[in-house]
Amino acid sequence: MLKLYFFPMACSLASRIALMEAGIEAQYHLAHIWTKKVADDGSDFRGISPKGAVPVLVLENGERLTESAAVLQYIADVKPETGLAPGFGDPDRYRLQEWLSFIGTEIHKAFLFPTFWYKDDGSLAKPRARITQTLAVPSAHLEDREFLVGKSFTVADAHLTWALLLLRPAGVDIAQWPALSAYLGRMQARPAVREAIATEMALRKTVAASPA
After folding, report:
1. Is residue 211 pLDDT above 70, yes or no?
2. In what residue span(s) does the GST C-terminal domain sit (predicted)?
């Protein structure tokens, strides 16, 4: 069975969404990204991943896979019949990688990461200045599309859904991009997405109310 190390509402939420959309049973282990402790036994999370970051997907052979783009594509390929990633040889497979890269670098690392990790205005000025231009890209793309890639839900949608959810607590109201707001509404209406979010929101409250 696959094992996912996660932190509630962190980028690992996209991996949980993908697992649930694919109907893949997995074990979930909470790892505190601030203290680097595994909730199950208090062990050092850096013993699982020297990066100290989620997601970490432990494969059935015991190998560990990190980085959202790689983890999401792996999950999709476990059950190719679900269509969570275009098949090998399909040009859209490269479009999927294009969007996973864009979300991971331009939204996550360029804006969400510094917003939640850094507190001084000097460090946040440049990310804040760029985010409007950044979000204009997926907004324009989704003006006449239901999904990011092709005509069905893929792991790229799981990734963008997570990123859009984090924008509001990061101080960005996506209502100014109607296409993104409508897209997020469609994604949240999906049963697996809704359940994954509800699960992590509940866990987030538990983590906040208890010592790490």
Report:
1. no
2. 89-212
DSSP 8-state code for residue 16:
H
d(CA 183, CA 162): 12
Cα pseudo-dihedral 139, 187, 4, 44, rounded to 10:
60
Polymer length in residues for the chain: 212
The neighbour count for residue 201, using CB atoms within 10 Å, is: 13
8-state DSSP, 44: B
Rounded-to-integer distance, Cα 31 and Cα 71, Å:
16
Nearest to 8 by CA among 55, 65, 40, 68: 55
Q: Identity (one letter) of the amino acid at 121?
A: D
pLDDT in tens, 15-59: 999 999 999 999 999 999 989 999 999 999 999 999 999 999 999
In 3D, which of 196, 69, 205, 93 has the Cα closest to residue 150? 93
